[in-house]
Design brief:
Shape: rod-shaped
Strand content: under 5%
Helix content: 55-70%
Distance between the termini: 81 Å
Oligomer: single chain
Amino acid sequence: MRWCSIPLISAALAAGLVMTGCSSVAPVVKFDQVKVAIPVACQEPEPARPQMPTDQLPADVDVDTYVQAAEAEIHRREGYEIQLRQALVNCKRPITAADAATKN
């Protein structure tokens, strides 16, 4: 009788395993939001470089004329640098949802 109970016990164990597998909870699928920085090309136009006064001077110009042209060039360069800095600031500015909506 002992040998007859082994197949019965095996069948009971197999049925128990099958029932346990059917009653287990289905795995839960969870989505996590991951924020990744995506490089975007800057669309800001590059300001045009102005003509500098000292570039147009002849080689044999006197000192006074050269100094006047150099002083004017300093002011013109400062204005150009302000335009360049503003373009750089606009390129570094974070993209907002409104910016993305206007580009599409």
